[in-house]
């Protein structure tokens, strides 16, 4: 693709048709499922880095799949919250609804803007119980509609990381609904933030909502 000045830029999900997006994600999930069946890996990370500011080493759209014998700190913390309160994600969704930060809903898919992220964030939650591949299959069409809606709001040149979080297979814990998180890499860490691990997010979620809904 070329912009109005004739300069090339990467093909992104913003420009995908519904059928292209459908097969893009269908292929990604089929690979993840295949790897679980073919290996004894504990957790498979599915993510995407868009533009070099977000860590992309190749100048085009591409998913990445990495197998690990560890769940990672984010999943560990979320499991800890759910062990203490199995309604943790449900209460979080209710709170964001009360704060008017749910910006889109299609079936059991909710798109909202959470507080407390290192970068301005968008989350796409699949509010359905079950193992991850069953949940994806039941809600796949609504998920594609929802993802297409949110990507139509993002400019191609905004760097971002998209990560898919889900309950590790075989873990008996209630209340873990799978969700995508899109980290918009529009701010960088300051010295105090790196030293203290306390971050000042430059975009208030309500301001981000106004920006997205105005497009």
Description:
The protein is globular. The longest helix has 21 residues, at 18-38. Strands 2-1-6-7-5-4-3 form a 7-stranded antiparallel sheet. Helix 1 (18-38) packs antiparallel against helix 4. It has helices spanning 18-38, 73-84, 88-98, 132-151, 191-196, 205-213, and strands spanning 43-50, 63-68, 102-106, 109-112, 121-126, 160-165, 179-184. It has 215 residues and is of the alpha+beta class.
Structure keywords:
215 residues, alpha+beta, seven-stranded antiparallel sheet, 6 helices
Explain briefly what this protein structure is.
The protein is built from six helices and seven strands.
Note the topology.
Layout: H1 18-38, E1 43-50, E2 63-68, H2 73-84, H3 88-98, E3 102-106, E4 109-112, E5 121-126, H4 132-151, E6 160-165, E7 179-184, H5 191-196, H6 205-213
Antiparallel strand pairs: 1-2, 1-6, 3-4, 4-5, 5-7, 6-7
Report strand %: 15-25%
Number of strands: 7
Derived structural class: alpha+beta
State the helix count.
Answer: 6
- The outline comes out as globular
Report the mean per-residue pLDDT as an integer.
Answer: 88
- Strand adjacency order, main sheet: 2-1-6-7-5-4-3
Report the end-to-end length measured between terminal Cα atoms. 21 Å
Largest sheet: 7 strands, antiparallel
- Low-confidence regions: none
In angstroms, what is the radius of gyration?
17 Å
The helix fraction, in percent, is 25-40%
Name the helix and strand elements from N-terminus to C-terminus, one letter apiece: HEEHHEEEHEEHH
């Amino acid at each position: 693709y070329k912009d109005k000045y004739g300069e090339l830029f990467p093909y992104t999900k913003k420009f995908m048709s519904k059928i292209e997006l459908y097969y893009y994600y269908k292929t990604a999930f089929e690979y993840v499922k295949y790897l679980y069946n073919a290996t004894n890996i504990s957790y498979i990370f599915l993510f995407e880095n868009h533009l070099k500011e977000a860590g992309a080493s190749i100048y085009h759209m591409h998913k990445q799949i990495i197998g690990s014998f560890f769940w990672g700190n984010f999943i560990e913390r979320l499991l800890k919250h759910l062990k203490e309160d199995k309604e943790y994600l449900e209460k979080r969704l209710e709170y964001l609804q009360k704060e008017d930060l749910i910006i889109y809903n299609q079936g059991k898919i909710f798109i909202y803007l959470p507080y407390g992220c290192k970068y301005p964030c968008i989350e796409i939650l699949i509010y359905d119980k079950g193992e991850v591949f069953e949940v994806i299959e039941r809600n796949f069409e609504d998920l594609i509609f929802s993802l297409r809606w949110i990507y139509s709001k993002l400019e191609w040149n905004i760097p971002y990381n998209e990560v898919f979080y889900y309950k590790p297979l075989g873990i008996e814990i209630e209340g873990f609904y799978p969700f995508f998180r899109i980290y918009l890499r529009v701010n960088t860490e300051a010295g105090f933030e790196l030293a203290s691990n306390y971050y000042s997010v430059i975009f208030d979620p309500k301001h981000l909502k106004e920006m997205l809904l105005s497009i």
